[in-house]
Amino acid sequence: MNPQDWVKDRLGYKFSSLALLEQALTHKSASVEHNERLEFLGDAILGSVVASALYRQRPDADEGTLSRLRALLVRGETLADAARELGLGQQINLGTGETRSGGHQRGSILANTLEALFGAVYLDSGFDAAAGVITMVLGSRLSKLPVEADLRDPKTRLQEWLQAKGFPPPEYVVDKTTGAPHVRTFVVLCRIDSLNFDVEGIGTSRRRAEQSAAEQALDQLANDE
């Protein structure tokens, strides 16, 4: 599927300027006419659209809650997941090195390209068109927002649970790492000596593996209660 047909099929949008679309889909490894400026623009528009939607959907939420919800929706992981669902990876123009190293499925490249597309739609047709595309892409993520208590990350929730029970905080230890530097996988143990158990978490960064381990620990503690 060519890029124009892909955009119409997956984003419900038709570009007037094919040059803008091509630039939005071009990584800096492939050409000097790349998408970083469009990414910058798209990031700002995304933040504005999401802030407006949250303001309307959560009329009783305070500023802190709205900020956490916005951060959840605009973070790289969320955008990369949405890009994968759209099949964006195969539409990105990459240099030879990035192609060989799996750049078409790298989270940062997917997220940045999606933001560049938002910026390109804005330049092509204006804010309302860009807002429509963003709302469609985020879809259920906007309509099924978590409750405030679930906005705290697993490590924070685990530490709060342990403190409430009078236990010391857990210890996170990297058990092993595998893979090449650009596709590394971390295995982290969450150790809770006071309860005499270790829980394993896996992620593409140490932070993600720690959060995964904390989530597993919370699940186990809930089952034991």
What order do the helices and strands come in, and which of them pair?
Elements: H1 3-11, H2 18-24, H3 36-57, H4 63-74, H5 76-86, H6 96-100, H7 107-125, H8 127-138, H9 140-143, H10 154-164, E1 171-178, E2 185-192, E3 197-203, H11 206-224
Antiparallel strand pairs: 1-2, 2-3
Helix pairs in contact: 2-7, 3-4, 3-7, 3-8, 5-7, 7-8, 10-11
Q: Please, could you describe this protein's structure?
A:
- This protein has 225 residues and is mainly alpha-helical.
- It is 58% helix and 10% strand.
- It has two domains: 3-150, Orthogonal Bundle (Ribonuclease iii, N-terminal Endonuclease Domain, Chain A); 154-224, Double Stranded RNA Binding Domain.
- The protein has helices at 3-11, 18-24, 36-57, 63-74, 76-86, 96-100, 107-125, 127-138, 140-143, 154-164, 206-224; strands at 171-178, 185-192, 197-203.
- α3 (36-57) packs across α4 and α3 (36-57) packs across α7 (107-125).
- It is flat.
- The mean pLDDT is 90.
Q: Which shape, going by the Cα principal axes?
A: flat
The CATH topology of the largest domain is given as Ribonuclease iii, N-terminal Endonuclease Domain, Chain A
Q: DSSP strand (E) fraction?
A: 5-15%
Mean of residue pLDDT?
Answer: 90
What is the level 1 CATH name of the largest domain?
A: Mainly Alpha
Percent of residues in helices:
55-70%
- The SSE string, one letter per element, is HHHHHHHHHHEEEH
Catalogue the unreliable spans.
none
CATH architecture annotation of the largest domain? Orthogonal Bundle
Domains, number: 2
Structural class: mainly alpha
